[in-house]
Amino acid sequence: MAYKVNPDTCINCGACESACPVAAISEVDGKRKIDESKCIECGACAGTCPVNAISL
């Protein structure tokens, strides 16, 4: 099960995208989205999110 971004909480800062070692995060409609097929569930994105918008 891949990590997911809560679009209601995401402030689109990009911290998660630069932390992702497999480039699974991109911007979609002004928010970050995680590509579930690329996510390796390492948690790097969740650890860098300043508003805790990412969870499993």
Describe the structure.
- This protein has 56 residues and is of the alpha+beta class.
- The protein has helices at 15-19, 44-48, and strands spanning 4-5, 25-28, 31-34, 54-55.
- The strands form two sheets. It has a two-stranded antiparallel ribbon with strand order 1-4. A two-stranded antiparallel ribbon has the order 2-3.
- Proportion of β residues? 15-25%
How do the strands line up in the largest sheet? 1-4
The main β sheet shows up as: 2 strands, antiparallel
Q: Whole-Å distance between the termini?
A: 7 Å
Helix count equals: 2
How much is the average pLDDT? 96
Helicity range: 10-25%
By secondary-structure content and strand pairing, the structural class works out as alpha+beta
- From the alpha-carbon coordinates, what is the Rg to the nearest angstrom? 10 Å
Give the overall shape. Answer: globular
| Count of individual beta strands | 4
Question: N-to-C SSE series?
Answer: EHEEHE
Poorly predicted spans: none
List its salient traits.
56 residues, 4 strands, alpha+beta, two-stranded antiparallel sheet, single chain
What layout of secondary structure does this protein have?
Blueprint: E1 4-5, H1 15-19, E2 25-28, E3 31-34, H2 44-48, E4 54-55
Antiparallel strand pairs: 1-4, 2-3
Quick recap of the structure?
With 56 residues, the chain is an alpha+beta fold. The protein has two helices and four strands.
